[in-house]
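Figure caption, in words: inputs first, then the predicted bound structure.
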Amino acid sequence: MSKTIAILTSGGDSPGMNAAIRAATMVAVAKGHRVLGIRHGYRGLLDGKVGPIGADDVNGILREGGTILHSARSRRFYDAEARGHAREVLTQYGVDALIVIGGNGSLTGLTLMSNPDEAGDWPVRCIGIPASIDNDIALTGLAIGVDTAMNTIVEACDRIADTASAHGRTFIIEVMGRDCGYLAMTSAIASGANMVLFPEAARTEEELVNSIVKTILTVRERHRENQKVVAIKAEGVPTPTERLKSLVDAKLFEATGEDHEDEDVETRVTVLGHVVRGGRPSAFDRLLGSRFGNVAVRAALEGEHRKMVSWLPPMDLPEGAGTRAAADPYCYLVDLPTVLSATKQLLEGQSPLARWRATAFDDLEDVFLL
Ligand code: F6P
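Bound structure (6-O-phosphono-beta-D-fructofuranose present):
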């Protein structure tokens, strides 16, 4: 029997969301089902912005950044009454399954909306797809968009390294990631930066300043000709980047007596900001989005409910929290409420993965400096 599957994208967009929309739509249509696209996330759902989408609508979107369904952050959705209205809208449209593509906040919305204590025996099957450049969602190795964002950061860092090298300057490059240091940590390795500052390490402002100054002095001592220093800083580190720069310059002046008016020694700051969130998805994100879209639709049609599709979780899943997806051995279906509690632990630094992230670079600090 033909079913109706609704898809929405929510929260910060991420490159590869379109690949997931496309794959979910094409798999559903090929199997004789109807697909509805909900525009502007949960806000659009509350406003009834729902319409059919077919293979023609998703043709060619694979290579586009952003999301053809548009996205939004909806405060209204925190209200149980609004979520009740959202369930009514979906019921009016005859929806059998809802696929939500988004980050932590979007998956929280889906979990609340499908909570049996609130929704009763509401029959709509709910499946989440992790999509966020931050990679701050637990129990999945990667979310959609992380790889593209990392490639964008690395390209920017390569460019900055050229000019930093020409002038023998220090750059602090701030990258997105909200409260999570994943993007900063991985792009620091992939770009060959001299150091990385991330919130999980929980360093005091003084420790941050001292570590940058130590790096600058060590590089200057070791490399007479190329005195470039690139430090990648996650946006989640509480000290504002401009303040950090001023503190570093002051400390350096104090330590060396060098006058930054006369020399090229003043630190430069680049905040990459939303540049990191846009652009054509990498091949990997196109593939990951396609994988997730395929698995999500098949799971929904098989009656799975309150699950998130996951890709190669980095740690063992908690007992009974998930199973390998029948449609794709690289993917898992994980219990949504468990994903959210594990994500909370991750962001609060309480999970084994969080602890590993917090200490992983301690030992590497000297390696980065070589
Ligand atoms: O969650 C994705 C993200 O890009 C974060 O890295 C960043 O902190 C935030 O969204 C920015 O949000 P907005 O686009 O609403 O300014």
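The mean pLDDT is 96.
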